[in-house]
Every structure is written in structure tokens, then in C-alpha cells.
Amino acid sequence: MSKPTDLVQGTLDLLIMKTIALEPAHGWAIAQRIRQVSKDVLQVNQGSLYPALHRLEQSGWIKAKWGESDNNRRAKYYSLTPAGRKYLDQEQANWQRLSAAIGLVLEIAD
Amino acid sequence: MRIFYKTFLRVRSIFRKNRVEQELADEVRFHLERLVEQNIGRGMTPDLARGAALRDLGGLEQIKEECREMRRVSFIENVIRDLRYGLRMLAKSPGFTVVAVATLGVGIGANTAMFSIIHAALIRPLPYRDPAQLTFGGAPNPMASAPDYYDYREQADCFAGFSAILAMAPKTTVTGGAEPERVALTYVAFDFFRTLGVAPAAGRAFTHEEGQAGAPYVIVVGERFAQRRFGGARNAVGATLNLDGLPYTVVGVMPARFRFVNDVDVWAPMRRGKSWAGAPRQYHNWLIVARLKPGVSINRAQQQVDVISKRLEQQYPASDTGMGLRLDPLQAAIAGPEKPRLVLLMVAVALVLLIACANLAGLLLARGSARRLELAVRAALGASRAQIAAQLLTESVTLALLSGLLGVALALWLDRLLPLVTGLTDPGSTPKGLEWPVLLFALALSIVTGVLFGAAPALRAAALPLAQDLAPGARTTASRGGTSLRGALVVGQVTVSLVLLAGTGLLIRSLARLAGTNPGFDPHHLLTGEIQLLAAQYPDPDQRIRFFDGLREDVAGIPGVKAAGFINDLPIRDPFDNIGAWDADHPPDSPANERLAHRRVVLPGYFEAVRIPLLAGRELGKRDSEQAPLAMVINQRMARTLFPGVNPLGKRVAVDMGRATPAVFEVVGVVGDARIIAVGLGSPMTMYLSYDQFPNATLRFAIRTDLAPQTIAQAVRRLVAARNRDIPVENLVSMEDIIGDSLAPQQVTTVTLALFAGVALLLACLGLYGVLAYSVGQRTHEIGVRMAVGARRADVLRLVVGQGLKLALMGLGIGVLGGLAATRFLAGLLYGVTPTDPATFIAVSAVLAAVSLLAAYIPARRAMNVDPMVALRHE
């Protein structure tokens, strides 16, 4: 993932929001978790991570709070807002519908 | 909910900028440190770890910048940054800034002041309750007679209030205090204040009972009068005042700023059938003020009123034929007469601002050329064309806003001078300071102006390739385009200046014509004044005749007095009192064909005093006493109208004096015509009656003296006081001043327009000079070349002046065409001059051409003195 295209940007947003839906996390932790859960397939471009986080914050889907990290340093923790949670469910459903449809088309092409 | 969070973030980004920036830096640094730790954990040395981390992360600054963009406040930040940069640039070139701000500030200030006047007079809602529902008598039939008024009132049902006010404000003598005082008084229907929706400052308005005959004498006074006489509004309520010797009780006080049509200190109620309210049906001197019922349109009300008018016409053909009542919305009716003048001045001042903007655009275009290097560097560092244009535009708007501030200060100062500008203040109440719509106008005007004059330079700077300007010694050939644009601007300026000058010239000629008109009498060295005898003190006509006869002799005896004339209504100052008159032997077949003649009552010696020539017959004298037959002297106009081709002497004239049968007079003399209504209006039919036969209580005088008129004023006062201490002598003013005052609105308009035209001319010349000076500067090299190959200095002079003349003549040509088309709108304000008067146009064209030549000459001289050797070496 180099310069985010529209589809990719939307996907990144989705991944970020899903990650923090379970538990608030700072930017570093979010990137690590996405890598772990996807078994090293998805490596978030660090140059696009923070702009994405700030954009989501400006749109009001996620909110931020400064807290202490595990090594006693200050870090900015992000979590979902209620509106964000609804948006996430919506986008997740859309994504599943989309990927199912793509799968159907790919099977026919054979 | 989302919107609150979003707004909070944006606000925080603007106001807690440092904090937000710090957080962003911390956040990114935190990530960097973790990355470094991870690298170290993988076995790298700290330095390598850090290097690898930085590479992985990408540019730290770029990440931060992208995050900032996400915050979407960068637009505002950019504007603020451009603003501060603009202010710095302006501070760096103080000369330019001062000139620009001064020029524009004067333009914006004048426009704001003008708009303030217009807003108060035409736009601002009148200070009455629900003013849209108020109607007022309008042309051609604005007034009704008292009996008609009562009939309309009873028969119409679409009005929530139907009220009236006398069209005049006669003076009354107030006694009982320290000194007798003459105050203006007018009569109103009892529900007048309620209909308008104005509450008294103290006390109450009139009741229904007080509008009936036989009611106790009550009045309402104005707050200023109450302050003067009783020391306050509260004290005035319940007090007694002696008006013309009769006691009146004050029941209410109107607020100081209340004024309606007549500028009076006392309002008395119409008492049905009494005094003015009891005048016969043919005296139409009441203005109708009516409030529509909610939901009723003015057209419906007009229809109903028309039906009633028709009915009255049939019932009372002698007085009401051809009279109807027209209802106009109050605001339009009151403001209407001033509208042409105000609109003219507003248009003129807006044109002046346009010219100023053109000047500024020219200045900025020149400056733009000088700043090409700076702009090219900005472009090279990554500024887009749009950003550069935006920055230049912001500078212009900043300049304009600064000028706007100066303009508002100027307008505030002008506003203080406004009360001196007679005839151009609003009729409702006096404006104090600038109201917020006016300030808003100033702000909007500043921004529009800034965009207007900044657009051209900004677009040009953004449109042209900037890269080549970085090359050293870059020749600004592109500035040629700038010159042609500036040339076009100058042509426009000259055009507009010519139109303004033409208008001014026409108005000046009109004024001169007016001032030079022969009014039919000799207005110089005439002292005028007014004397009212108290009815209570002089109930008997003989007493009044004796008083004025005696006074006339006394006055004639004052050293320096040549003659003393006494008349009921002075020319120009009192253009009232016209009634129906006709040839007694050939009465008109219908009342509609009756003619109106102005009725004047004189003592012997009046014509000699004011120098109206006696053309035939004799003057009125002592033989025309009470017992003698009714006699009149008519003016030439009346003689020619009523008795064409015959000798009018001995003929009989019937006059409708308001009684059952007309009075019949014998014509004993004919005098010259006099312009008694206004200097600009011709002489109406005028008939002069003998005072002995119609001894009014009030007489005015015109005393001819070979000294300055005011010097005998004291003597006159003393003479009157010697006869009766209680009688004040009012309005001692010279006839020349009266005429001068009557011309004041015209004068003010002319002077103001001349001022605007002068400023416009100056600015246009500055513009022309600027363009030529710049052009000469640019073409120095070329001039050097020309001279080197043999051109003489005279040729160079001709070259530059020719360039300037070309621009000026183009502007002149378009201006003359435009002026000829535009001046027709002035027609209403002109007197004795047509809107396309050739002499005026030729004169102003010559003036403009001459001034343009002068403006072109100075740069031309400089061009002439160019040393070819120096010029050839010049880049």
C-alpha cells in the first residue's frame, strides 16, 4: 500500500476502527495489532496511518485521549464514538457484501 | 452529536494551535521511539536503528503536514497568514500605503456618508408602529377639506385609524411667561398620535371628546418646548399655557425626536366645526394620515375612498369636483420629493469610488511588475497560482479594509456636519451616529472594492509564466500588457469624470439662471418680519387698522428707511392662500373651470416698498375703507387671463371667500407680475385687497432701507414694543436671505456634485499621469535609441503627450456620448438649461482636455530631458 487510493483508504479506515472497537489503542499499537491479526499479511504504511487517524478524528468517528502507555510514556489513545460504532457496523456489512459479490464474479470468469 | 465534537476540534485547532501542534509532534515522536526500540530489539545499533526508523516512517514533516491538512482549518490559517504578510508588505512601502488608504478611504467614507443619508431618508422604516400600514395623501389630490375629512371618516370602513393634520403650521403667541414667544402650532385629529402609533413621553394624547366643538381647550406640546418652558416633560403635563390670549391645558408631551411634516412645538386638536376644522368645504388644507386595517391592501382602500369621493362630488359639486383623495404608502410619500437629488448624489459618489478603484488598480499593476521576482520565488518554492492570486487578493482586501476604517471615521465626522446640509435630512427624526446597516454597508463596500481593484493585478500575476522572471536581467516585456490595461482604466476614468463634470456644469448653469432671475420685485435691502395681534387684545377691526396704520408711519420715520410695506403673505416665504376668482360678469359654467388666484391683503405703500410697478389705474388707499365698495388691484397675469384684450379697470371680479355667495370686487389698478411662490416658478394670478376692508390679526412687513437690513431690526422691535409690550416681532430676516434659503437645496446639491466631480477629475489626472510616467520609465531605453538616431526633444515631447492625449480624447469622446445619454435624468433638477446644453458640454470638454494636457506634460518633460547616452546603457 503506497499512496492510498479511495478504495484502499476506506479499507484502512475500516481496519483501524475495527481494531479499536475492542479496546482503545495508540497508533503504534493499532499498526502492530493489524499485522498480528492478519498474520503479517497486512502491513500498514506508517506514512498513511496518522493522517488516517486524524481524518477519522476530524470526522467524529473516533475520539482521542492522552494516557500512559505500558512503558510509562504519554501516548494518544483512540477509541470509537457511538456514531463511529454505528458507522463501523454499516461499513463492515458493506464490505462483506462487496467481497462476496467480487467472489461470485471471480468464480464465473473461470 | 458529531457536529459538536467536530466543531470543538476545529475551534481548538485555531485557538490552541501551539498545544495541538505539540500533541501532534509528541504522537509522531512516540511512534518513532517505539520503532527505534523495535529495531534495536532486532539487533541494530542505536544509530542504525534510528536511521532505519526514519526511513520507514517516511518524512516526519510530511506526515505532520498531512495530518494538519486533515484538520481542514488550513484555509483559515492560510488567510490569516496572507493577512499578516499583506500587512507587512503594506508597512514596508508606507508612501504607497498612505496614498492608497487616503484615496480609497475618502471614497469609501463619502459613499458611507451618502448611504447613511439615503438610509435614514428612504430605506429605514419610519419610527411609527407598523409603518407599512400607514398611508398618506399623495399627488395629485393629497389634501381634503375638514368637512370632507369627517365624511370620509364616517363612510370608510377599511381603516383602523383615519386621521388628519393641517398642512400648515401657523404661528401663535405664547404669553404668561417671562417674554412673549411665538411658536409654531398645527392642528391634528384627536386620534392622530394613536393612528401613527407614537406614544407620548409624558401625559396622554387627545380623547374623542376633545375633538368635539365645545370641548375644553387642550394641547399637546413637544419635549423640547416643555424643557424650555417648564423645565421638563413631567412638569408640563397639567400646566396652563396662554395661546393668543386664551388659556389651554397641556395634556401630553411628545418625545423630542417626534416630528411629522410640520416642525411644531404645539399640537392642538381639530374641534369639529371650529376654527380651521370648521372651514368651508372648498378649503382643502388637511393632509390625511390613515392606518389600514390588517389584511386590507392599499388598493382596496383606494377603491373604497374613490367611491366616497364620487359621492361627495355629486353632493357638493361646487367644492369637490375633480377633488379625490389619493392614498400613498407613507414612506414613499414623505421621501418622494427628495429622491431625485439623493439618487443623483449617490450615483455620483459611487462613480467617484469607481475612479478611485481604477487608480488603485493601476498602482497595483505597476507594483505587481516590481514584485515579479518575489512572486517567482514563491512559485518556485511550491506556491500554486491560486495561492499566489489569493495572497495578492488578500493584500488588496486588507488595504481596502484599512481604507474602510478610515472611511467610517470620515463618515462619522461628516455625519456631524449633516444637520447643516439643509433639505437633505430625513423628515422623521434626526440620525445620530451611524446605524448598523450603514456600518455593514461600509464593510461590504470595502471588501467589494478590494476585490474589484485587486482582481486584475492578482489574476495577471497568477496567469503569466513566472519562471522566466527568475532569470537575471529579465526584461519585463510582459508589462506592456499591463500598460494597455492601465490605459484602458484611464480612458474609463476620463469618461466618468466627463459625465460628472457635465452634470455639474448643467447644475451650475441652472443655479446661475435661478439666482439671476428677476423676481418681479426688488429683493435687495428689504427687511421682513411678522407681527401678530392677539385676538383678545384687539377684538375690534378698527383697533387693528389703527395699530398698523400707526406702526407704518412710525417705521417710515426710522432714519434710513425709504418705505414700509405691509402684506399678509410675503413673496417666496409665504406662498399660500389661493382661492377661486373669476370675472363676475362671465362666471365659469362649472366649478371645475374655476381659476385660483393668490389673495394678498396690503396696506397702502406696499408696491412702492417692494418696487412692483403700477401699470394702470391706482393703488389701494385710505378711500378703500370698510364702508367703501370692495376694491382690488390685480397683477398683469390675472388681467390677461380674466380679461384678455380688454381694459380691466372698472371690471368686476368675484371671489370665493368661503361664504355662501362670492364677494365682488372692482378692479381699480393693475401691477406688474411678481414671482411670489418661488424664484424658479412663474408668477401666478395675484389679487391685492385693502387691509382696511380685511383687517387680519397677522401682518408681515417688508421695509426698504438703504442701510443693511438688520441694522434697523432693533428699531422696529422697539417701535412695536412701545405700542404693545406683549407683541413679539418674529422672523426678522432680509428678503435676500429668504430667497437664498429657498435656493439652498439646489445650492447644496450643486456644490456637492461639484466637489465629487472635482475629486473625480483629480483622480483621473493622477491616473493619466501615473500611466504616462510609468510608460516613460519603461521606454527610457527606446527613447534613448530614438534620440540617438536623430529624434529631437520636441519629437519626444510630442510622442509622450500624444500618447496621453490619445487616451484622454478617447475618454472624452465616450464621455460626451455617455454624458449626453445620462444627463436626461437630471432634467428635473435643471432650470433654464436643457440636459444636452452644447455650451456646457463644450466647456467641460475643454477643461478636461486642458487638465489632461497638463497631466501629460510633466512626464513628457522628463522624457524630453533623457540623456541618450545614459538611456542606451539603461536596461
Explained architecture:
Chain A is α+β, with helices and mostly antiparallel strands. Chain A has one domain (6-109): Orthogonal Bundle (Arc Repressor Mutant, subunit A), CATH 1.10.10. Chain A has helices at residues 6-22, 27-37, 46-59, 82-109, and strands spanning 62-68, 74-80. Chain A has a two-stranded antiparallel sheet. In chain A, a hairpin with a 5-residue loop joins strand 1 (62-68) and strand 2 (74-80). In chain A, helix 1 (6-22) packs across helix 2 and helix 1 (6-22) crosses helix 4 (82-109). The two termini of chain A are 28 Å apart. A six-stranded mixed β-barrel of chain B has the order 4-5-10-7-9-8. Chains A and B meet through helix 3 and strand 2 of A and helix 1, helix 2 and helix 4 of B.
Brief digest:
The complex is a heterodimer of chains A (110) and B (875). With 110 residues, chain A is an alpha+beta fold.
How are the elements arranged and paired?
The complex is a heterodimer of chains A (110) and B (875).
Chain A: H1 6-22, H2 27-37, H3 46-59, E1 62-68, E2 74-80, H4 82-109
Antiparallel strand pairs in A: 1-2
Chain B: H1 2-15, H2 17-41, H3 46-57, H4 60-70, H5 74-92, H6 94-123, E1 134-137, E2 143-144, H7 146-155, E3 159-166, E4 171-175, E5 181-188, H8 192-196, E6 202-203, E7 218-222, H9 223-230, H10 233-236, E8 240-243, E9 246-254, E10 266-269, E11 286-292, H11 298-315, H12 317-320, E12 327-329, H13 330-335, H14 339-370, H15 372-380, H16 385-417, H17 436-463, H18 479-516, E13 526-532, H19 541-556, E14 561-567, E15 578-583, E16 595-602, H20 606-610, E17 614-617, E18 631-635, H21 636-642, E19 652-655, E20 663-671, E21 686-690, E22 698-705, H22 713-723, E23 729-734, H23 735-742, H24 744-778, H25 780-788, H26 793-822, H27 838-864, H28 868-873
Parallel strand pairs in B: 5-10, 7-9, 16-21, 18-20
Antiparallel strand pairs in B: 1-11, 1-12, 2-11, 3-11, 4-5, 4-8, 6-9, 7-10, 8-9, 13-22, 13-23, 14-22, 15-16, 15-19, 17-20, 18-21, 19-20
